Amino acid sequence: MTRCPECDSELDLDEDEVEEGEILTCAECESELEVTQIHPVHFVVLSDDDEDDEDDDDSDEEEDDDEEDEEDKDKDKDKDKDKEDEEME
Description:
Blueprint: E1 2-3, E2 10-11, E3 23-25, E4 32-37, E5 42-46, H1 48-88
Antiparallel strand pairs: 1-2, 3-4, 4-5
């Protein structure tokens, strides 16, 4: 019997009917499992949470870039203001 690598529950599948690269879902933990080997069957857990985290990380980086751009603009404005003040004196 084959077990889910995520929750260790028994997976009801016929080892002769799965193909390498096939995506299955565990009935217990709902993890997506990719068949990486047959005879014996081995899986890799495909987690949507990981993909979401990566997307979140990307958006965090974009936000950081935006914040840096804002800071640069503020610095430029301060420099311009200082120059204007000097010229007025």
